[in-house]
Write a structure and sequence with these properties.
By secondary structure, the chain is mainly alpha-helical.
Length: 68
């Protein structure tokens, strides 16, 4: 997450990366007991970030430290 932010300077991309990696990491660790909750959290985060996702695809998402 911090690496993504450091390389791209896009905070929302780092947040989305962390949200997507949580269920994957839990699956790798075999934590199937909390995997469903992590998947729900990931979906909620992606839904809340849908405007950011649109801007990411269009290339207009703001970067950390850049002014308008």
């Amino acid at each position: 997450c911090l690496t993504v932010i450091g390389v791209t300077r896009i905070v929302s991309l780092g947040s989305l990366t962390l949200a997507a990696s949580l269920p994957v990491c839990l699956a790798v660790l075999g934590r199937w007991d909390i995997f469903p909750m992590a998947a729900v959290v990931m979906i909620v985060i992606f839904v809340k970030h849908r405007e950011n996702i649109k801007r990411l695809f269009s290339g207009t998402e703001k970067r950390l430290g850049h002014r308008d």
